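The instructor's notes for this session suggest beginning with a concrete chain rather than abstract definitions. Hand out the sequence below and ask the class to guess, before any prediction is shown, which regions might be ordered.
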Amino acid sequence: MKSLVTGATGFLGSAVMLCLLKAGHDVRLLIRSNSDRRNIDNLPVEIAEGDLRDHCSLERAVEGCDYLFHVAADYRLWVPDPQTMYDINVQGTKALIIAAANAGLKRIVYTSSVAALGLAANGAPADEETPVTLDQIQGHYKRSKYIAEQMVSDLVRQHQLPVVIVNPSTPIGPRDIRPTPTGRIVLDTLHDRMPAYVNTGLNIAHVDDIAYGHLLACQQGKTGERYILGGDNMSLLEVLETLDDIIGQRKKRINLPTDLMLPVAWVMEQIAAVTHKEPRATLDSIRMAKKMMFFTSDKAIRTLGYSFRPARYALEDAVRWYRNNGYCN
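After discussion, reveal the predicted structure:
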């Protein structure tokens, strides 16, 4: 059985790739010609060069495959040109899924995000049925993932496509080479650059547990259904204190109201508009931080057999990987 994986040079995609190799799949990777290939070096995989915006390359990539794991996405909290993000996350996803369906693939696993789901008003963990509308969603990344998931669901209903949707929460662990915005929290703590925090919350899961959830969704998931693949709900302060304990340091931090951070984020975005370098904080990220982004994986646990290890293990593995790969020098 041959599986096509997108996004395998990145963080979550590389974990999905390794999980499939371990499970005995022949793996083909769709990657851009200029991608950083450290996460796929010396692995027994087939390379198909292409781009989600090059629809002909997608048709070539799916040919001869049995399964598709579409993990790739433009995941940034700030972009100089938002249209690029929609072209990749929405239109690219549509083109790839249609190409896979036309090629007769047996199962398609689409990696959405908890960013496409609603949040409980009282801070309780949200689930797959927690309602949300597009105008309630902050930021181009979250909006693009919401639109993409709605589009995928429409394709499934209209054409009976063999698609299962997974909604990962916040992955942490090894191989976050870029790193992701959450990975930067770990790195900033390692470099003693986290003197303050805001009262927000995240659902933290080991990236390899989320990857295994993708395999379970392919094997056990119901067509058209979506499944949250998450872990432990933690406040940002709990995350930072856990990292302090792992690192072996004790830090006092200032609690900053989110409203005080908005002017700082605005200045950072103005600088980014000139330098084209992603700012460390954005207006959207601060606005999102006003809510507890807590989720439950009960549906995936109950119907897929999904499980996750404590978040501390994910944070420990992330710290170890960054230290072993030169990020702390």
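Then share the key points. The chain is about 45% helix and 15% strand. The CA atoms of residues 38 and 226 lie 31 Å apart.
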